[in-house]
Amino acid sequence: MSDSSWSWAAELMSRFLKKPARLQHLLERLPSVMDPGTRRRCQFLLYGTVRHWTFLEEGLDEWLKKRPRVGLRAALLVATFEIMTDPEKGPQIVDHAVRGIGKKYSKSERGLANAVLRKVSTRMSERLSTVPTDAATIAVRYSHPRWMIDRWEQEFGFEGALRMAEWNQREPDLYAFSFKEGAPLEIGEASRWERYSNLTNEAWPAVQEQLDAATIYIQNPGARLAPEMLAKFFEKGRVLDMCAAPGGKSLYLDKTLGDAASEIVALDLAGSRLERLKSNMSKFGSKRIRVMAGDLFEVEVKSTGSFEAVFLDAPCSNTGVMQRKPDVKWRPVKEDWEKLTVLQERMLDKAASLVGEQGLLLYSTCSIDGDENEGVIDRFLSSATGQAFERLECSTSLPWESGHDGSGACALRRR
Fold first, then answer.
1. CA 95 remoteness from chain centre
2. How far, in whole angstroms, is CA 291 from its chain's centroid?
3. Do 323 and 172 contact (CB within 8 A), yes or no?
4. What letter would DSSP give residue 397?
């Protein structure tokens, strides 16, 4: 293993401990000259440590009188994750970690790391075999905030909460959909979802070649559910995709609706996300897609005209995508849910104002939380604005059942 990948993973984990942040943002701190193999190993160590944070920390705390300073704590967590991935190689992993720690920390801290990690290693297999029996043990064994497990247990039962937590701890597969109509992807393995191939075991240079040729777009199959629901009820006309960046759903809508869509307006706020949207539309998009910069709350029907379909993929808790984004578990707090649903309801109310006569309003999230999905729809339909709409269909995709990202979607029609 590269010393560089290990030391960088420990450094980025230290930053995460100080202030939980998006892991993709932390990875931007890696040197641009770092070779791809070292970068991938660093990402694996960082994501895995964050994914299993609670479990790793409990294993260390068992042997510590008090937690060490944050940098050493981060290094111990990364080393413990390595031991977790291959307990039989525990002694070699400990030797490597202790050498790395000795280069940066004092002799006494090196000795502490050596003693603690060897004890952690001896207990790892036993701890991994622990079978959770209640919400508290799920939260520790599968590293989730306790309040989150309690919330899932209330909504999905103990078995559902357990399976969701287990799902989030697995390494995610990598998927892409093809822009070649009716043709399978030239790389990867076939999946059970039409248009999608599994690229998990594919060498990255081969994937990059297809991306450069604009024949594929990296996207989890769960992202197709809302566009396909809209397509089920759509006849023809203009479509507004609100909160469109980075553009995957606009692209999928374009391929699914075809010539029935005379125009797809992809809207998002000015900034880095909009620039990424523009880049993706320039590379992958069609003449039907038009990128528009703006705040959705400031878009007025008198300037844009009404739309036959408005698609709102609302900001949410991201509970459906925690397998791919493990940092999501640690950034929200329980109180954030109420703030999110208030924002979602405001956005839905605004989106409704842009829907034309007999037009469609498609609301979606990448959350499995009922309050963010059908709860938002129920409250909207009972509002003054919502009374002009009827519910056509609502569904929630649960990852442990579907085998891909979780999400919620509801289709409404103006009466």
1. 34
2. 24
3. yes
4. E
How many C-beta neighbours within 10 Å does residue 342 have? Answer: 12
List Cα–Cα distances, 373 to 32, 213, 291, 397, in angstroms: 40, 37, 27, 11
Tell me the residue length of the chain: 415
Distances (CA, A) of 214 to 95, 193, 305: 45, 20, 32
Q: Which residue has the tokens 């998927």?
A: 175
Locate tokens 């291959």: which residue?
86
What one-character-per-residue DSSP string does 293-326 give? ES-GGG--HHHH--EEEEEEE-----GGGTTT-G
Start-to-end Cα distance in the chain: 62
Answering whether pTM is above 0.90, one says yes
Asked if residue 190 lies in contact with residue 183, where contact means CB atoms within 8 angstroms, the answer is no
Pairing of strands 261-268, 216-218: unpaired
pLDDT digits (tens, 9 = 90+) for 178-209: 876 655 677 899 899 988 999 999 998 899 99
Task: Judge whether 42 and 30 are in contact, CB under 8 Å.
Answer: yes
Measured CA to CA in angstroms, residue 155 lies from 164, 284, 378, 398 at distances of 12, 39, 17, 12
